[in-house]
Write a structure and sequence with these properties.
- The protein is of the alpha/beta class.
- The chain has helices spanning 41-48, 74-78, 96-106, 112-128, 144-155, 174-189, 201-207, and strands at residues 2-10, 16-25, 30-34, 56-61, 64-65, 81-84, 162-166, 193-198, 210-215, 218-222, 234-235.
- The strands form two sheets. It has a six-stranded mixed beta sheet with strand order 6-7-8-3-9-10, with helices on both faces.
- Mean pLDDT is 86; it is low at 226-238.
Length: 238
Amino acid sequence: MIQFNDVGMRYGMGEEVLQDISFTLERGSLCFLTGASGAGKTSLLKLLYLDRKPSRGQIMMFGSEVNRLERHELPEFRSKIGVIFQDYRLLDHLTAFDNVVLPLTLTHERNQKIEKNVQNHVKELLIWVGLEHRMYSYPSTLSGGEKQRVAIARAILQRPKLLLADEPTGNVDSVMAKRIMHLLFEMHKLGTTVLIATHDIGLADEMGASRINIKEGKLEIFSPPSSHDSSHPSSHGL
């Protein structure tokens, strides 16, 4: 599903924050992206959800070279990707329900068929993440864990092929962290490719999933399981 070949990335004219990144993430896999704060995890995620372009190298996603995509192709391409941001990015003037449905509004996909079914679909998602009693609450009244679950529901609304989570347990207690990780693992079981960025290496090791580690912008460690298991990532040139 994803292949990085000698990718570098910089902001403006500064030094590269990512250097010579190469890896392959197979369809339907679950992988952790680890590294200390400032190591480059968020920058790598920005490349994956097309917020930034690489300064060099090649990125292949869903069979297409990202660098060659035309502007008009980006909305449809991005609809295949769900993102759970560390800071939630909920709009304060919208209820939990309306925050979840927002991606459909932004991508102009609310045709009559979607309008008829969208309410039930969003309600089902909010029930699935345990927020059936908070559907019409505003972000200012929600706890950190509740906000994160709203963000998860929004990210999976369009049933993405790829789900990216940036420090999804960084702002919640240990009990809520386990609940959020359970939701992400459930998405993986449904066939979604999941990449979870975290500075907590212990969490990644506890889950027994494959792990990419970034240190000072470089891919330092890549620890896939046995080679016969094709559901996990593989690396190049490491």
